[in-house]
Structures are given as structure tokens and as C-alpha cells.
């Protein structure tokens, strides 16, 4: 019974870790695109060109 309980909790833990890593991955990608958008804005605005994000 104890081993089954431990096995189940390990499964749940692995699932949580998987979800968490996916969340972190998505978050980092979003941050990356946000950062590149900001830097692009600065570069384009410095040239005095209108910037439209597509």
C-alpha cells in the first residue's frame, strides 16, 4: 500500500514538473518576443520611422 502511494505521488509530481516546465518555457518565449519587440521599437523609433507591430 505504501509503495503504491509513493508511486502515485511520484507520478503526480512528475506531471506537475512537466506542467511547470511547459509553463516556464511558454513564459520565457513570451518574454523573449516581448523583449525583441521592445528593442525593435527603440531601433525603429530612433530612425524616426513609424512602427506597426504585425
From TrEMBL:
The lineage of its organism: Eukaryota, Metazoa, Ecdysozoa, Arthropoda, Hexapoda. Residues 1-26 form the signal peptide. It comes from the Eukaryota. Keywords: Signal. This is Uncharacterized protein.
